[in-house]
Amino acid sequence: MKTRRMVHGLAACALAGALALAAVTCGAEAPVVLPPPALDNPRQNGATQTAVLAGGCFWGMQGVFEHVRGVQRVLAGYSGGSRSSAQYGTVSGGDTGHAESVQITFDPQQVSYGELLQIYFSVAHDPTQLNRQGPDSGTQYRSAIFYADTTQQRIASSYIAQLDKARAFPRGIVTRVDALTGFYPAEEYHQDYYLKNPSAPYIVFNDLPKIRALKQLFPDYYRDPPATAAR
Fold first, then answer.
1. Which of 125, 167, 193, 199 could form a disulfide with 59 if both were Cys (CB 3.0 to 4.6 A apart)?
2. Among 57, 99, 186, 203, the one annotated catalytic
3. Is 13 a catalytic residue?
4. pLDDT under 70 in the chain at which residues?
5. What is the pTM of this model?
C-alpha cells in the first residue's frame, strides 16, 4: 500500500538529509527535457481524442496531465485487465493484469498525441523503472502506453526507439506498448486526489514536484487552473 511504502521512503530521506531535498532525491523521479517525437500527428482541427497512459500511481499522472494546455479532462483508472477486477483493493494485489492509468481527453488542435508522450517521458514518470515508480512497486505500477489505434501505436513505438537510440536515459526504456482493451475509471475518492489532499506526504514528496517540473521545463505547455476530473 502507498502509505506503508511512504513511511519507508521518508525514513530513507531523513537519513539522507534535509526534507527540502527529499522531494528530489527520495520522492518524484528526476525530470529530463526530451526532444519531441520525430513521428507525430500534426496539430489540427477535429474531434477530441483520448490517450491512455500508465506510469506509477495515478494520482501524480493525473496531476501532471491536468496541467497540460489542450487537455480537457483526465480520469484516473485501470487498464490492462477485466472490468470485473477493476477495483482498487483488487488491483493493489498486483495480479489482475491492470495498471493504474489515466485517460486523457485532449484537443488535437492545441496539443498532439506525440507532445503528450514527450511530457509523459520527460516529467510524468521514469520509463526505465520496471514494475515500479518511486515508493510503489508491482505490475500495477508499470510503465505502459495503451494505444487506441495503429496511429497511436506507431507514434509510441517510434518515439521509444528514437529515445533509446539517442540514449536519452542511462538505462533502456521498459515502457510497454499495448492495445487498449478497456479503461475503467477509479473510485471517486481517487479522482483529483492531489487537489483534495495537497498536504498529504505522498503528494508533497512524489507528485507536486512533477507538476512543478512541468511548469519549469515546459512552460509553453503548462496551464493553471488545471482541467479537473469533476464536471
1. 193
2. 57
3. no
4. 1-27, 231
5. 0.89
